[in-house]
Amino acid sequence: MTGILMIFQIVLVIAITILVLLQRSESMGLGAYSSSNNSVFGAGGPMNFLTKATMFLGLLFVLNTLTLVYLYNKQANTSALDEVNVKKIEKKLPTAPSVPQAPIK
């Protein structure tokens, strides 16, 4: 199960990277935060398809990461010795060997 989720995680990372690189840059780096005419809730307009897809894949990424953390934590709390069937061996005390008695005269 964790193997399938890990492969899905890698696919999500690649898809998010591609979607982010395909989007149009609307800022000039860190300098745009001080004086930008594109505000978060302003005249930027509705989100386009790439932005919505990036948000959706980001949500899937976070949920998949949390699932993997839960499964690996659950697996880490178990020990290999928990799965071993241990048979109880009853120790029997050895009996004293019988000594042949000398014939009575």
Please give a structural write-up:
Helices cover 47% and strands 0% of the residues. It is an all-alpha fold and 105 residues long. It has a domain of 56 residues. The model has no long low-confidence stretch (mean pLDDT 77).
State the total count of DSSP E strands. Answer: 0
Radius of gyration: 34 Å
Tell me the distance between the termini: 83 Å
Report strand %.
Answer: under 5%
User: What profile does the largest beta sheet have?
Assistant: none
Number of helices: 2
Q: What is the approximate shape?
A: rod-shaped
Mean pLDDT: 77
Provide the succession of SSEs.
Answer: HH
List low-pLDDT spans: none
Helix content: 40-55%
Helix- and strand-based class? Answer: mainly alpha
Task: Describe the oligomeric state of these chains in a short phrase.
Answer: single chain
How would you concisely characterize the structure shown here?
By secondary structure, the protein is mainly α. The protein has helices at about 1-20, 50-75.
Question: What labels would you give this structure?
Answer:
47% helix; 105 residues; 2 helices
Secondary structure blueprint with pairings:
Layout lengths: L1 H21 L26 H28 L29
Helix pairs in contact: 1-2
